[in-house]
Design goal:
8 helices; single chain
Length: about 150
C-alpha cells in the first residue's frame, strides 16, 4: 500500500510539473484581433507561412469582417502556391473593402499566374483606379501587365 501511495504521489507531482512547464499557445493569450494579426505578419515576414495562417485564421474567427486578415491569408496562400485559396482570401478582403489596392493588385497577380487574363486585366484596372501615387512600382507593374496581357 505504501508503494502504491508513493507511486501515486510521484505521478501527481509529475503531472503538476508537466502542466506548469507547458507554454501557452500565442493563440490562447487573450490578445485582440489586431495583435494576433500582427503576430501573423511577423511570422509571414520570417517565412513561417503555415504558422502565420493560423494567426490570420484566428483573427478572422474573431471578426469575419477583418479585411486585412483576409488579405494576409491571401499573401500566405500565394506564397504557398495555393492559388485557389489565395483567390478566395483576396476576393473576401475586396468584398469587405472594395478599394483595397494591395488586395486588388495581388488578386490580379494570382489571376495572371492562373492564366486567367480577363480577370487579371480587370483587377489590374481596378487597382489603377484606387492606387495612391505612393505605390509607383505596383502602378508601373500593373500598366506593364495590362499592356502584355491585352490583345
Amino acid at each position: 500500500m505504501k508503494a502504491f501511495v508513493s507511486s501515486l504521489c510521484f505521478i501527481v507531482s509529475l503531472l503538476f510539473f508537466i502542466q506548469c512547464g507547458k507554454e501557452k499557445s500565442p493563440l490562447d493569450t487573450g490578445l485582440n484581433k489586431h495583435q494576433i494579426n500582427n503576430q501573423g505578419i511577423s511570422l509571414l515576414q520570417e517565412g513561417n507561412f503555415k504558422e502565420a495562417l493560423e494567426r490570420f485564421d484566428k483573427a478572422v474567427a474573431m471578426d469575419n469582417n477583418f479585411a486585412l486578415a483576409y488579405y494576409n491569408q491571401g499573401v500566405c496562400y500565394q506564397a504557398l502556391k495555393d492559388l485557389p485559396a489565395a483567390t478566395k482570401a483576396y476576393s473576401k478582403a475586396i468584398s469587405l473593402k472594395a478599394n483595397f489596392p494591395k488586395a486588388l493588385f495581388n488578386l490580379a497577380l494570382v489571376y495572371s499566374r492562373k492564366k486567367d487574363t480577363t480577370n487579371a486585366v480587370k483587377f489590374y484596372k481596378k487597382f489603377l483606379k484606387v492606387a495612391p501615387p505612393s505605390m509607383q512600382k505596383p502602378i508601373a507593374d500593373a500598366k506593364r501587365h495590362i499592356a502584355e496581357l491585352s490583345p
